[in-house]
Amino acid sequence: MITRKEYDTVMRSECQAELSSFSSSQADDIWANETSNVWDSFERCDNGVFIVQCTEGSSGYERRQIIEKVDGCEVLNIIYNKKDRTSFYVYGRKESLEDLQGNDGIKVQPLLPMMKIRAGLVEMAKKICSEPNNKVKLSVECVKYMPASTLHDDLLVNLSSFSGGDHNHVLDQAFPASGRGIIATKNDLSLLLTRRNFSVECSSQSRVFFCWTDSQFPFEYLLCLVATLSSLKCVLSIEIQSPIQFFNHL
Question: What is the structure's pLDDT at 216?
Answer without folding.
Answer: 76
